[in-house]
Amino acid sequence: MTIRVGTYNLHGLRDSVPALARVIADARADVLCVQEAPRFLRWRARRAALAAASGLSVATPGRVGGVAVLVGPRARVLHAETRRLRAFLGLERRALAVAVVQAEGARLAVGSLHLDLHDAARMRHAVEAVALMEDVAARHGAAVVLAGDVNEHPHRPAWRYLAGRLADCYAVAPEGDGLTFPAGKPSARIDGVFAARGTHVVSCGGVRAASADLTGASDHLPVVAELRVGH
Description:
The protein has helices at 17-27, 43-53, 119-140, 157-165, 169-172, 211-217; strands at 2-9, 31-35, 57-58, 68-71, 76-84, 95-103, 106-114, 143-149, 167-168, 174-175, 191-195, 200-205, 223-228. The protein is an alpha+beta fold. It has one domain (2-228): Deoxyribonuclease I, Chain A, CATH 3.60.10. The strands form two sheets. A seven-stranded mixed beta sheet has the order 3-4-2-1-13-12-10. Helix 1 links the parallel strand 1 and strand 2. The radius of gyration is 16 Å and the shape is globular. The relative contact order is 0.19. Residues 6-220 form the Endonuclease/exonuclease/phosphatase domain. Pfam families: Exo_endo_phos. This is Endonuclease/exonuclease/phosphatase.
């Protein structure tokens, strides 16, 4: 069976929330990693309302780092947590949101990550996130999937590290042009889904949604990987 795992930077819900909900629904993700989710005023209610409008629910606790994992009805949540990553003086606090899910016999440890614009912090957090994901996956007998806004190009060190430890799903089975930023005129692939190498990547690319919704929902475009785990 296949599981659809996606990633989407929500731009703090500063754009059209109805368009955002439609794009998320069109993604048909069983598990969706989000970044720049609301984390201040009424953050729980705003996250829950967006998820519900998109046919999903919020799996992970906490607001730190603006990261979260949303799940669809096919995914049963076995474990969820949000872990703070190393603090860097003067930089935004980053975190990793993790949900261990089971869907029709396949078990995945899915992490949502938003890396910094600062080179050293970005690399440190990439290494830290992979170690945390491997630990959670080992404890729960799950395959790792790490997704998010990497904030750099695929030839740069942090992306290369992630793609060295896990498979860059788009590079394995590309669908569409793969560019994710900026949404209105995309010129860079800075958002990605990375999966354990034992996972078969069926496809990975953008979401088939109305052009007006994609440009009106966020400054990023979503990415969805279709994965086959097990037999």
